[in-house]
Amino acid sequence: MSDGANAILVRRRRRTQTAEPGTSRRSRVDGPLAAVAAVFTVAQLVLVRPVLGLGWDEIVYVSQVTSDTPAAFFSAPRSRGVSLLVAPIASWSSSTPLLRVYLALLSGVALYLALRAWRGLFPIRVLAVGGALLASLWVTLFYGPQAMPNYWVAIGALISVGCFLRARTQPSARAALWGVAAGAALMAWMRPTDAVWVTVPLLVLALVRRHWRLLLVLVAGLAAGAVEWVIEAYVGHGGLGQRLSDASRIQGGLGWQIAVDDQLRSLGGRALCRPCTGSMPHPVVTVWWFVLPVLAGLGLLVAARARRLGRTLVPLACAATAALPYLFMIGYAAPRFLQPAYALLAIPVADALWHLVRTPGRTWRPVAATLVALGLAGHLAVQIAVLESTVSRNTESRRDWDRTAGALHRLGVRPPCLLTGHEAIPIGYYTDCSSGATSGHNENTTVADVLRTADRLPVAHIAPAGGTPPRYARTWPVHRISDLDVRVAPPARRNNGH
C-alpha cells in the first residue's frame, strides 16, 4: 500500500512540475500582449485625461441610463450597446472622470483579449506590434475612454475574425466558436449595420466552404446582439424597414457617395466632418493613410509566400467591407468610423513590417530596421501631436457648454426645464434640462408642446448670435451668452398658466 501511495504522489509531483513550466510559458507568451494593453490604458489616462467632459454623442448614450439627467432623443441609427456598457457606472454616479477611468481600463482589457484571439495564427511579436499600431493611432487613444461604439465594434471585429480563423483550423475548439459568437454579438450590440458589413466575408466563406457550424454560430451571435435593436424598431420606429430608412435619411441618404477625401480631411483631428469643407491636413498627417494599404498588400504577399494566405486574406477582406460604406456610401466623415478597418489591418501590416526588418541580408538588415524604426517613431510623434490638439479643442468646447449651462442657471433656467434650438442636446445635459427639437434629425416635439411646457417650466431657445429665432420665441427676452443668443420664455407665461 505504501509503495502504491508513493507512486501516486510521484505521478502527482510530475504532473505539477510539467504543468508549472507550461503555465509560466503561457505567461511569457502573453506578456507582450498584456504590456501593449497596459501601455494603451495608461496612455489614455495621461494623454486624453479623465477630466474631458462628455461630447454630444456620448451625452445621448449616457443620458439613457442616468437617474439625475433627462434622457436625450435617441435617433434611429443608434443602438443601446454603449448605454448598457456605461450603465455600471453612469447609473449611479454622475462623475465623468470615474466613467473615463472605467472605460480606459475596460478598453485596455478588451484589447488584450482581442489580441489573444489571434494566438497561434501569427507569431506573438506580430500580434504585439499589431496591437501597438492600433493603440497608437490618435483616434484609438481619443475614443478608447469615450462612451462611443466604434472602438468596441473594432474589438468585436478582431475577436470574431481571429476566432473564426482558429475555428476553421481547429474544428473541435469550443472556445474559438464562443469567441466568434461573442465578437459578432458585441459588434451588433454596438452598431448592427457595421456588424453586418464586417462579417460579410465570414458569412460568404462559411457558406461556400460549408462550415455549417461556424455559419450557425456567427449568425446566432449577430442575432443575439441585434435583437434589442430589431425589437425597438417595431416598438418605436414602425418596423425594421422604416428604422433602416430613417437611419439612412439621418445619415444623409446612403448611396454612391465618395467620402475618401472627407476621411482625409478628418484625419487632422476633426471629430465630425459634416459638411466636410476646408483644406486638407498637412501631408505629414495623412501619409500613414496612404502607406497603410501598401503595407497591407505586402503582408498579403508575405502570407502567400509563407503558404498561410487565408489568415491574412480574411481580415483584409473584412477590413475592406467594413470601410466600404464609410468611404463610398455616405456624404460626410468621422475618423472613428474606420476604427474596425484599422483594427483588422493592424495585424497584416505588423506582419509586413516584421518581414521588412528580418528578410534583407545581413548587410542590409540594420538599414531596414533603422528605416522602419524611424518611420514608426515619426508616425507616433504625428499621432500624439494630432491627439493633443484634438483633446485641447474638445476640452474647450465642452467647457463652453458647461459655462453656458451656468449662465442659464443664473437666468433662472433650472431643472426641471427645457432647451430648444442650437446645441440643445449637449447644453441641455450640462444644464440638467430636457432638450427638444421641432424639426430636423432630432425632432421629438412640436411648437404646441414647447409652448405648453413654457406655461409650467423654464424654457429657453438657443441660437447662434444674430441668428433668426423660430416664430414662437421671437418675443421672448434675448440674452447674449458668449456667441449665443438665448431667448428665455417670460415667467409671466408660467404665472398665467397657473
TrEMBL record:
Keywords: Membrane, Transmembrane, Transmembrane helix
Segments passing through the bilayer: 33-52, 98-115, 122-143, 149-167, 212-231, 287-306, 313-334
Iron-sulfur as UniProt keyword: no
Protein name, as recorded: Integral membrane protein
Protein source organism: Streptomyces africanus
